[in-house]
Amino acid sequence: MKKALWLAPLALLAAKAPCNQWFTTLEAPLPAFKPGPIGATMMACENLDQERVFFNALERATKVEVTAEALQLLDDSGVIMVFTPE
Questions:
Q1: Which domains does the chain have, with CATH numbers?
Q2: According to the model, what pLDDT value does residue 13 have?
Q3: Cα atoms in the 13 Å half-sphere on the side-chain side of 35
Q4: Smallest Cα–Cα separation from 32: which of 11, 3, 52?
Q5: Does the pLDDT at position 78 exceed 90?
Q6: d(CA 30, CA 62)
Q7: Which of 20, 29, 30, 76 is deepest in the core (most CB within 10 A)?
Q8: In Å, what is the CA distance from 5 to each residue of 21, 37, 43, 49?
Q9: In this model, does residue 9 exceed pLDDT 70?
Q10: Where would I find the beta strands (DSSP E) of the chain?
């Protein structure tokens, strides 16, 4: 699954899920990860089940770790998503 993530000024967050573009605000300063309500386009595709998994993981994430190689989202059990440069 190809994933892209952009952190923008003013605590805006936007990305592409498996099917749809989505966006939210960040409600806490980094390295905490607390997204606000998530908005998304509503395109249908064959990967909607993967998209539900993606959004569920996004909502579980509580922390961000950034290195030169990747941005990782973590929950209380550890790393749940990894974003790497293309």
A1: 4-83 (2.40.128.270)
A2: 84
A3: 22
A4: 11
A5: yes
A6: 10
A7: 20
A8: 10, 17, 19, 20
A9: no
A10: 4-8, 12-16, 21-25, 39-40, 63-66, 71-75, 78-83
Query: What pLDDT sits at residue 84?
Result: 87
pLDDT tens for 39-61 read 999 998 998 899 899 889 999 99
CA distance 60 to 46: 24
In this prediction, residues 71-75 reach a mean pLDDT of 94
DSSP alpha helices (H): ranges in the chain? Answer: 48-60
Place of tokens 């908005």: 39
CA distance 68 to 23: 24
**Amino acid found at 79:** V
Taking a C-beta distance cutoff of 8 angstroms, is the pair 49, 34 a contact?
no
